[in-house]
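Priority: medium. Attachment 1 of 2:
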């Protein structure tokens, strides 16, 4: 049986709730907070006996340090949602420690080479002070009692017409009008049965979407102090030879009183299985080869995510790690708008990252919150009345369109700089493939994501209900898209002109001056992102109009 978190009120078998969310990772928790805040009755079902999913913070008793064994970094310049959420929850962040030289070990029989990485290795990266689990704790604390059920592994969904049965091994099904699967798509594919079955195209897209970092293992070793700083080392190291144990090392020190070195294990899941017992020793000797004998005496913490059945699918374990990728098909609602796929892997912006988990939660909050006269709760009704009462002080539609256009123009102005930031991040992450294409797409997705967030704020003032809808197109769509005229081409031109003068790209001729084939691929990518954005913008206008009509 599942356990309820904090004073659960058990639901009777016949009770139908508004929304069931499967997965209490960052996406599920953030979404639950938004939906419960809007008065919806929500049940979060979590397979593990803890919250947070891939967010996991261990604590070193000896040094008092919080150690992130899952996500560590966020990038404020390119990740607005996570940055805003931390501020809203009153959580601090600190810059990743980078000053000093980085060590490169390319031959196991030689001393590591010291390199000064100009601009640092983790450009702009920040860490949540006290560990990423603080974020999870703060989100969970904002939920009503009984909202989360732990130890409730969902095994499938059954469409019962007026509601959906969410089946689990933890007792009777939870009955919900809408369901959000806030977990990696490959886990949905491998672990859940849906009746009726999901379309083949969606199942194929799930199979092709890797779970970011799922097959990785991360280590953090703690020390009484960060002794490597005194020797001029930043704590960053790259080990690039076939016997590498840790491929990448970084400073993970998390308090004034101790030091810590984090690292990503270079051995794959099968190799780690073979070396399981000896791995801590191998890590210690690798650290000692890099930073000297003192590094041999740390306290090791190790998390192998490939052995976590609620993170790593069989497909993730069997395949080499792939960069985050997402398929717009996975953002389409299923079962006539009653089932949504969530989680970081399906985000349009920041896929694979904490930012992506929040982006995905935001998008689904819109779709789920579509008020329906039949299901509206008393709290929703009160919120709508309060909103109507405040109408007099709202800006007019013309002002709202003006504000929206100004915001788009600001975003357009910032886009070339954002492109450079995305590019720098790819380069500092030792990426070498499709750099222009990926940085451009990340920039476009970021602009669209922020534009939609701006639209959300302005929706009430846009008075969407009093405008025509012709062939499914809301009359305001064209006016709102107008400031984007020529934007894709302008962005591409700015990117190419930057690439042509970039020293950092001179080692990548294909990126320095992309050929016709690559330019075609980039143009197609940008066009697909644009199409998805236009559809989403139009849908939000239609949804707002429909909900206003049913008040
Ligand atoms: C080692 C590592 C390092 C990382 N580093 C970074 C970083 O530096 N910066 C960054 O931004 N991101 C990083 N990430 C990625 C980041 O952790 C994820 O993008 C984010 O946490 C995903 O959140 P999510 O809610 O989408 O999914 P998850 O956190 O995977 O949550 C899904 C939840 O669903 C639950 N679940 C699964 N199956 C079922 C089921 N059948 N029934 C019920 N519940 C189920 C799981 O237990 C889990 O709690 C890292 C990840 C790892 C593993």
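Attachment 2 of 2:
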């Amino acid at each position: 049986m599942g356990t309820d978190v904090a004073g659960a009120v058990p639901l009777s078998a016949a009770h139908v709730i508004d929304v069931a969310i499967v997965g209490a990772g960052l996406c599920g928790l953030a979404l639950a907070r938004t939906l419960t805040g809007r008065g919806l009755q929500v049940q979060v079902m979590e397979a593990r006996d803890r919250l947070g999913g891939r967010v996991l913070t261990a604590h070193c008793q000896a040094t008092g340090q919080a150690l992130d064994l899952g996500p560590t970094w966020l990038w404020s310049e390119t990740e607005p949602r996570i940055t805003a959420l931390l501020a809203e929850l009153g959580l601090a962040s600190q810059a990743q420690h980078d000053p000093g030289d980085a060590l490169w070990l390319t031959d196991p029989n030689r001393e590591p080479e010291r390199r000064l990485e100009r601009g640092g290795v983790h450009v702009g990266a920040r860490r949540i002070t006290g560990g990423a689990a603080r974020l999870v704790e703060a989100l969970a604390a904002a939920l009503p009692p009984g909202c989360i059920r732990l130890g409730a592994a969902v095994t499938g969904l059954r469409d019962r017409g007026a509601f959906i049965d969410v089946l689990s091994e933890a007792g009777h099904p939870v009955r919900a009008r809408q369901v959000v699967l806030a977990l990696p798509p490959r886990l949905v594919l491998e672990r859940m049965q849906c009746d009726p079955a999901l379309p083949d195209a969606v199942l194929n897209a799930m199979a092709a979407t890797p779970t970011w970092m799922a097959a990785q293992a991360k280590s953090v070793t703690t020390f009484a102090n960060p002794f490597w700083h005194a020797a001029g080392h930043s704590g960053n190291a790259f080990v690039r030879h076939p016997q590498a144990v840790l491929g990448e090392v970084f400073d993970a020190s998390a308090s004034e009183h101790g030091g810590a070195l984090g690292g990503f294990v270079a051995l794959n899941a099968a190799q780690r299985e073979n070396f399981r017992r000896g791995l801590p020793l191998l890590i210690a000797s690798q650290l000692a080869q890099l930073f000297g004998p003192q590094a041999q005496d740390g306290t090791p913490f190790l998390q192998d995510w490939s052995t976590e059945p609620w993170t790593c699918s069989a497909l993730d374990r069997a395949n080499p790690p792939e960069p985050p990728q997402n398929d717009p098909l996975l953002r389409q609602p299923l079962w006539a708008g009653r089932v949504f796929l969530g989680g970081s892997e399906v985000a349009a912006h920041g896929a694979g990252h904490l930012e992506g988990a929040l982006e995905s939660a935001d998008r689904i909050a819109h779709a789920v919150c579509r008020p329906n006269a039949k299901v509206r709760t008393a709290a929703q009704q009160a919120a709508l009345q309060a909103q109507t009462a405040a109408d007099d002080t709202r800006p007019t539609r013309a002002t709202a369109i003006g504000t929206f256009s100004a915001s788009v123009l600001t975003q357009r102005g910032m886009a070339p700089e954002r492109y450079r930031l995305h590019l720098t991040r790819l380069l500092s992450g030792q990426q070498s493939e499709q750099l222009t294409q990926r940085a451009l797409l990340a920039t476009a997705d970021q602009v669209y994501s922020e534009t939609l967030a701006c639209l959300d704020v302005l929706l009430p003032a846009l008075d969407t209900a009093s405008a025509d809808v012709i062939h499914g197109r809301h009359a305001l769509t064209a006016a709102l898209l107008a400031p984007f005229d020529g934007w894709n081409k302008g962005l591409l031109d700015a990117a190419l002109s930057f690439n042509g003068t970039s020293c950092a790209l001179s080692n990548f001729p294909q990126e320095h001056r992309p050929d016709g084939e690559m330019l075609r691929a980039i143009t197609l990518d940008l066009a697909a992102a644009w199409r998805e954005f236009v559809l989403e913008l139009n849908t939000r206008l239609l949804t707002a109009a429909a909900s206003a009509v049913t008040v």
